[in-house]
Write a structure and sequence with these properties.
The longest helix has 13 residues. It contains six helices and 21 strands. The radius of gyration is 23 Å and the shape is globular. The chain is mainly beta and 382 residues long. A hairpin with a 2-residue loop joins strand 2 and strand 3.
């Protein structure tokens, strides 16, 4: 089923929008109706309401002995987003946020997601869970037109942090991803996180940071172009995308989304778990003024975490996790340590930490003061 807007747009722009004019290839569509059904009637069902990143819905860090069916609902929203002053993205989103909301379950649980493609949207969409097994991560079972919904269930067999994203087929895949359609699911071990010695560790709060690269076209005067809808933006955006040079690299959807009045907040002595995803490009998170006490660089909790990392690596198409106890109050900058992307393109967040300063960890022995330059020249060099 296509909406009237989609039909009109398709008639005008078939050449530039091949997936809107025809459905995904037959070999990409799975039919699971002939497989024997699975009886999960004995399992408890719980339902979580998703929340906007960087926050994460309430969840347990350790799970009961028996697995559960964990239910979520998510709506696909196509909308215009102001990425920076004067720079507008025709975005495609999960639940209206960039990144899409983070889901948390435990190893052995069943994830049951109902996905709604709003009737006012123009595009087909689906969801590919890197945490899932088979059927293109669920992508071939969830392709929905505007005005349709679908429900997918998969078993979370591997603990860790994983990306999910839209993957409707062909050239639509990268376009949908760099237009905002990615998020993260965290599958915790049933008995919680462990340090390298196997001791249980916990977190006092959790922040989810989704990093996105955007490709917003400019006109002949060097001004960012603005489009009527997502379909109109495709041809010009494709040209910029294929140049592989992003116009913006941001955290949580826009420049400044996690700085200033939007800064994250924590308290001295708290253990904070940072989950960081990037669905398209490699990145290298760094906490200025802090460290990664425990880092699951590739995000998989069956692997032993690294200790005391200064900067860690998140491969494109993956999510990682870092646990840090804040020891000093003040403002910490959490950045992509390609500092060009952090400072000039937008990939920076701030964490404001309250508490009492500890001079044993750092002390300003002397405040800046003028000195005799001639005297310095005689003493500072060998």
């Amino acid at each position: 089923m296509l909406t009237r807007r989609a039909a009109l747009m398709g008639a005008a722009g078939v050449a530039s929008l091949p997936i809107l004019a025809k459905a995904a290839k037959a070999e990409e569509i799975m039919d699971t109706s002939i497989a024997p059904p699975v009886d999960l009637s004995s399992l408890k069902r719980i339902k979580h309401k998703l929340v906007r990143p960087p926050m994460v819905h309430a969840h347990e860090q350790t799970a009961p002995a028996e697995p559960r069916v964990v239910q979520f609902e998510m709506q696909i929203v196509e909308k215009e987003v102001e990425v920076d002053e004067g720079a507008y993205l025709q975005a495609m989103t999960f639940n209206g946020s960039i990144p899409g909301p983070m889901m948390v379950v435990h190893e052995g649980d069943y994830v049951e997601l109902t996905l709604f493609n709003s009737p006012e949207n123009l595009m087909q969409h689906n969801i590919d869970f890197h945490a899932a097994t088979g059927a293109l991560g669920g992508g071939s079972l969830t392709l929905v037109n505007p005005g349709e919904k679908t429900t997918l269930r998969f078993k979370a067999t591997r603990p860790g942090t994983f990306v999910y994203h839209c993957a409707p087929g062909g050239p639509m895949i990268p376009w949908h991803v760099v237009s905002g359609m990615s998020g993260c699911i965290m599958v915790l071990p049933r008995d919680g996180l462990k340090d390298p010695e196997g001791n249980a560790v916990s977190y006092d709060r959790i922040f989810y940071i989704g990093e996105n690269d955007f490709y917003i076209p400019k006109d002949e005067n060097g001004e960012y172009k603005r489009f009527e809808d997502v379909a109109e933006s495709y041809p010009d955006t494709l040209k910029v995308m294929n140049g592989l040079i992003p116009s913006h690299v941001v955290f949580n959807g826009k420049v400044g989304s996690l700085t200033g009045d939007n800064a994250l907040h924590a308290s001295q002595g708290e253990n904070v778990l940072f989950v960081h995803s990037q669905a398209n490009r490699d990145t290298r998170p760094h906490l200025i003024g802090g460290h990664g006490d425990l880092v699951w660089e590739r995000g998989k909790f069956n692997n032993t975490p690294q200790r005391d990392q200064e900067t860690w690596f998140i491969a494109g198409g993956s999510a990682g996790a870092m646990l840090y106890k804040f020891l000093q109050p003040g403002v910490y900058a959490y950045v992509n340590h390609n500092l060009i992307e952090a400072v000039n393109l937008g990939a920076t967040a701030h964490v404001v930490v309250d508490g009492d300063w500890n001079n044993d960890l750092m002390e300003q022995v002397q405040a800046p003061t003028e000195y005799n330059a001639a005297y310095e020249g005689k003493t500072a060099l060998p």
